[in-house]
Amino acid sequence: TSSGVPDIMASESLTLNDALQLQDLAGTLTTKVQTVVSDLTAKKAQIDMVPNASKAVADTLTQQKAAGNMFASAVVSKVPTIGQTIAKQQTDQIAAAFDMGIQAFSA
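^ thats the sequence. predicted structure below, dont judge the formating
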């Protein structure tokens, strides 16, 4: 959820060293989101057997993507300017993973 956004916005900006450490964590998060969405998509045929389940999955993924985008924007805003492009690219990969799931379950 986006509940951590106010805390992030109220915090100090990250140092370059902090941002580099955060990049490793973000890479792990990206991989985990991609794996979950891929695993979920692999179960689509089974999910489709339950009325309205695919729509519910697409809606949930859409909500998670929106919350993730808010959270990511807050974090990126705390990264030193020199690293913001890289940080944004990382968060874009997470959003793309959600988009793949949303597309699969919206079809």
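The chain has a mean pLDDT of 93.
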